[in-house]
Automatic annotation (TrEMBL):
Pfam families: ADH_N (PF08240), ADH_zinc_N (PF00107). This is NAD(P)-dependent alcohol dehydrogenase. Residues 10-332 form the Enoyl reductase (ER) domain.
């Protein structure tokens, strides 16, 4: 089979195509013909060497494909089933624990930049009905991250105000998921063009954070002075003070990204005086994923795909991500 591997010391020029023997499914495993993957910031950090991996690691944490073989004892799937992967294959249910958060494909173990994979049946769920492989490949990391932040750790519902930062994969899923339950969305970006696109996709209000540096106060103003119920926090320390300013008393912040750095000052007085809560969100469990896709009438998941690249152009796909010109998810077809 054809794979892409990452050679030491990492970097986009060290993504190399090679041939490897086709895997065979062991007991409890399914053999999946990978049809599509999608890029996440976590994958970018891996392939650029920010998260060290052994030489020869196969990257990419997301997968959609079809089952083409079964190992002994497999009961959840049949040959021909259309499936998608889990970001944390060892996190089946319950809360996060260390042992549940290891085994990430493309990082701790080989991932999905390959034509075939053999993994435990518990590392997959079925795809939502009616989804293409490309659409389904965008869900396991980005969509589930937004879902858990807003509906598991947070309590977004009809009438809630949600502040969404940026226009990357998680942010676009946050927009569609929030709107699907009747919430109102304020979305920020530094690009007026991207803001007009999110407005067309359903955002109720848009804010350019470059031209409105005190965008937290502006968001609060748009809610009638009360503040937002939920913030999908992508920036981290550089944006958290404004997010705190935007929140209502008793609001919730889903800490999903740290694009502005890994540490910084936090206005703690404003945080505790507003009785806020903040949850660190690293994707979710198999149970969360099943909940997200299990009721198509409740959550109207709408993937926004920026562009698509064949597997052999994986480095170019990451360069597209690196440029920060993308809007939504970048897909890799295999």
């Amino acid at each position: 089979m054809k794979v892409i591997i990452l050679k030491k010391p990492g970097g986009l020029d060290h993504l190399i195509a090679e041939e490897r023997p086709d895997p065979a499914p062991g007991p409890g495993q399914v053999l999946v013909r990978v049809r599509a993957s999608s890029l996440n910031f976590h994958d970018y950090v891996v392939v650029t060497g920010g998260i060290p991996t052994p030489g020869g690691r196969i990257p990419l944490s997301d997968c959609a494909g079809e089952v083409v073989g079964l190992g002994d004892g497999v009961t959840d799937f049949a040959v021909g089933d259309r499936v998608m992967s889990l970001f944390f294959p060892n996190w089946q249910d319950g809360g996060p624990e260390l042992q549940k958060l290891i085994g990430v494909p493309g990082d701790h173990v080989d991932g999905f930049a390959a034509e075939l994979v053999a993994m435990p049946q518990t590392a997959f769920t079925k795809m939502p009905a009616g989804f293409s492989f490309e659409d389904a490949a965008t869900l396991p990391c980005a969509a589930l991250t937004a879902f858990r932040g807003m509906f598991v750790e947070g309590s977004v519902r009809a009438g809630s105000w949600v502040l969404v930062q940026g226009t990357g994969g998680v942010s676009m899923f946050a927009l569609s998921l929030a709107k699907s339950v009747g919430a109102k969305v304020i979305q920020t970006s530094s690009s007026d063009e991207k803001l007009q696109r999110v407005k067309a996709l359903g955002a109720d209000h848009i804010i350019n954070y470059k031209t409105t540096p005190n965008w937290g106060a502006k968001a609060r103003e748009l809610t009638g002075g009360i503040g937002v119920d939920e913030v999908v926090e992508i920036g981290g320390p550089g944006t958290l003070p404004q997010s705190i300013a935007a929140c209502r008393i008793g609001g919730h912040i889903s800490m999903i990204g740290v694009l502005t750095g890994i540490s910084g000052e936090v206005p703690t007085a404003a945080f505790f005086s507003s009785n806020l809560t903040m949850s660190g969100i690293t994707v979710g469990s198999r149970a969360h994923q099943l909940d997200m896709i299990g009721d198509p009438n409740r959550y109207n998941i709408k993937p926004v795909i920026d562009s698509s690249y064949p597997l052999e152009k994986l480095a170019d796909a990451f360069r597209r991500m690196e440029s920060q010109r993308h809007f939504g998810k970048i897909v890799v077809t295999i």
